[in-house]
Amino acid sequence: MDFINKIIVGDTIEKMRELPDKSFDFCFADPPYFMQIEEGKKLFRVEGTEFDGCDDDWDKFSSMDSYKEFTKNWLYEVRRLLKDDGTICVISGMQSIYEIGSILRELGYWVINDIIWKKSNPTPNFGGTRLNNSHETLIWAAKSKKSKFTFNYKTGKFLNNGKQMGSIWEFPVCSGNERLKDDEDKKLHSTQKPEALLYRIIALFTKKSDLVLDPFGGTMTTGAVAKKMGRNFTMIERDEKYVKYGQIRLDNTNAEVGDVENAVFDIKPIKVTMKEMVEAGYYQVGEEFVNKKGEIAILADENGKLTYKGSTKSMHEIAAEMMGQTRRVNAFDYLYVRRDNALISINEIREKYRNYLVRGN
To answer: What is the pTM of this model?
Structure first.
């Protein structure tokens, strides 16, 4: 079956069973929430108009046991389809997230984090009978405890203005021009997710060219964002109407790949040794290594050992002694050498050597 960068039309469990084991790097799933709205019950806004919430047939189940069986079956297939180091991010509301989390563990998934999507513009509780339900929960889980999963930590820091990314994310619900409409100008799908939410998920938990599965395609938000970010996708959806409009959306989406999409912040630098840099002429045995206090150590050999106050040790141990520290420090963060009568960080010189290896200049 040709399934890469395609929408597969049909029942998600049946279609997943036709796909080969260990095909996918990541799965985003926005399954039915089983809202458990009473038959015939309507919700009204404060001014009296009817609220068109989620009462679609695809969200209806005969009982919680039926919903749990459905959840277990699709999660089983996703786990089979994930590569050994693959992960899943599944979203739901308070009606079903606890059942989903329990089933994930039962099937052998390893829960990494839960994430709160705090809605900046949530739907009010019109009756005033309980707290305003202003968030949804995502569970990010690996295929197993042994999985070496992708997590672009530094990309997360970049997206969070230099601070460690936390587990509470605030985005508005999907609205305006982003929300897909049908030919009658009515919203196409009750639970369309905002692209901003998927952008962050895919940026943090996948790499460029990864294959992303969405077993509940809906309006194809996952596929559209994946395509835009240089990932591949497979969407499964049984509703022909969603497929029709979703395919148009995918066809009109173009890749826009930059530093975040390439996760350049998380690319590990080339490992280089002092011996290599000495042999390449970037440092000279016998030259002075200086800290900010003006204290001086001498490069004793090509392997990077320094001599300070008659003692010769590794550059990291000597850097610590020069600072009055009892534990080793990273000398590249603290020491300088003279170049053209100016003090230059030895880390800056190391980066120049790395750039030379990459670019040849």
So the answer is: 0.80
Contact by Cβ (8 Å): 322, 291: yes
Q: Please check whether residue 235 is in contact with residue 206, taking contact to mean a CB–CB distance below 8 angstroms.
A: no
- Coil, strand or helix: which one is 240? helix
Q: Which two structure tokens, joined as six digits, stand for 126?
A: 């019109």
Instruction: State how far the Cα of 325 lies from the Cα of 304, in Å rounded to an integer.
Output: 19
Q: 74 CB contacts (<8 Å, ≥6 apart)?
A: 12, 13, 16, 29, 31, 215
CA dist., res. 68 & res. 18, Å (int): 22
d(CA 92, CA 131) in angstroms, rounded, equals: 18
Measured CA to CA in angstroms, residue 65 lies from 97, 99, 147, 164 at distances of 14, 10, 30, 39
- Which bin fits 161, alpha (ψ -120 to 50), beta or left (φ > 0)? left
Determine phi and psi for 86, rounding to 5 degrees: -80, 160
Please give the full DSSP string across 59-110, using - where no structure is assigned: G--S-HHHHHHHHHHHHHHHHHHEEEEEEEEEEE-TTTHHHHHHHHHHTT-E
Percent helix, strand, coil in the chain, to 5, is: 30, 20, 45
Tens-place pLDDT, residues 119-175: 998 878 767 788 888 999 999 999 999 999 999 999 999 999 999 999 999 999 988
| DSSP three-state, residue 232 | strand
Q: What are phi and psi of 178, to 5 degrees?
A: -70, -30
pLDDT at residue 315 is higher than 50: yes
| Joined tokens for residue 246 | 């979703």
